[in-house]
Amino acid sequence: MNKWQQQGFEHPVPSDITPQTVYRARRALLGAAGAGALAAMLPQARALEVAPQGRLPRLAAERNAEYSTSEKRTPYDDVTTYNNFYEFGTSKSAPARNSGSLRTRPWSVVVEGEVQRPRTFSIEELLRLAPMQERIYRHRCVEGWSMVIPWIGYPLSALLERVQPTSAARFVEFITLHDPAQMPGQNSSILQWPYLEGLRIDEAMHPLTLLSFGLYGEVLPNQDGAPLRMVIPWKYGFKGGKSIVRIRLVRKQPLTSWMRAAPNWYGFYSNVNPEVSPQDWSQAYERRIGQGSFGGLFTPRIPTRLFNGYGEQVAYLYKGMNLVKDF
Ligand code: MTE
Q: Which of 197, 198, 267, 294 has the smallest number of Cβ neighbours within 10 A?
């Protein structure tokens, strides 16, 4: 067992290990009969000390039907126990186990950079800044699994409009809390901290781009990015930074945490694209978590769609771009 496997690391950084080892580990994880995938599905993997639905404060929201899929929702237990949140460990179950140390009150978010009105917003202000909507989005991870999640939030554009971006604002950076005392995973150097993600300004202003505060009718559990996170449904899940404390409008394309860790695998755009697999594994199919017989053991493998099925709404953003080069 190498260092990577000992840590239960499922989101490999190529500089850490030889490509062939990565490839084999990936195959094991992603293949329908892969031990990693099976272990993650077994009932005991879910028997965690996690607040069940109904234990967190409710967050009222009106369903936005226009932006919601009618596909079967992934059960709450799966959405809250099968996570990536490296600040709390690198295995899927670690965030649910370890994120109890995160204090989400008081909390504030600085919005700054190329804006006319830079400001710090308290979480209370953010919660009432715009009407809360429920949106059922498909959620596709670059690792090859997917979910359908009823998020609660409002378009990020509602917040950005408040600070009035200048004409020089071309990109937006999203920065997660950096506090190893609350986030024990930050004592490891597996990623550069704080976690940083970014969007182009037109992507950030797109009506599908959600600033999310909750899911399944309640506030976000810590492991899902409390008290607020980004959700960009046509991009791989890692673009959605969690537990955000700073939003910065900038002139230059940011160097995100995953691009820094593995630039050959994780491009800036990271639009879900079954035809482009810069990683050592294919993005053509996905496993829908929480579906399938025997407690999810035989999870269906379904074809992945371009832009995660949101092409009609977002394809215009990339007109004239070469999505193989700009992956
Ligand atoms: N945000 C922070 N701060 N740290 C992380 O490790 N992981 C990303 C993203 N946001 C991550 C993060 C990855 S790899 C994915 S796939 C999604 O969160 C997963 O979100 P979920 O656990 O809510 O499904």
A: 294
